[in-house]
Amino acid sequence: MLFLGALVSRVAVIASLAIAFLAVGDFASAAVSSRPDRMITTDGEVFAVARDGNTVYIGGEFSWAGPRTGPFAALGRTTAKADLGWPEVSGGSVDVAIADGSGGWYIGGGFTHVAGRSYPHLAHIDGNHLLDERFQPAPDGTVMALVRSGGMLWAGGNFSTIGGKGRDHIAALNPATGDALVDVQADGTVLALGAKDGVVYAGGSFFHIGGKPRNRIAAINAHGKATSWNPNADQFIGSLAVSGNTVYAAGAFTFIGGQGRNTLAAINRTTGAATDWNPSPDSAVVGLAVSSDLVYVWGFFMNVGGESRSRLAALDLESGNATSWDPSPNGLVLTAAPIGSTVIVGGDFTIIGGQERLSVAAVDAGGTGTTTSWNPGANETVRTIDAHGGTIFLGGDFSAAGISERQNAAAFNASTGAVTAWNPSANASVEDLALGDDGTVYAGGFFDSIGGQARNFIAALEPLHGDATTWDPDLDGAVNALAVTGTSVYAGGSFDAVGTDTRHELAEIQRSDGAATAWDPDLDGSVNDVALADDGSAVFAGGVFTSVGTDTRKGVAVIAADTGDAQSAHPDPDGIVFGIAPTENTLYVAGGFANLGDQMRPNIGEFSAFDIDGDATAWNPQADATMLSVAHTGSLVYLGGSGTVTTIGGEPRANLAAVSGVTGTANGWNPNVNAGVDTIWASGARVFAGGSFTTVGGLDQAGFASFSERAKLRVDDVKITEGDSGTKILRFKVRLSRPDEESVVAGFATKNGSAHFPGDFTFTKGPLVFLPGQKTKTVAVKVKGDAVSEANETFFVKISGPTNATVADGTGKAKIVDDD
Question: How far is CA 619 from CA 601, 634, 735, in A?
Answer without folding.
Answer: 9, 14, 40
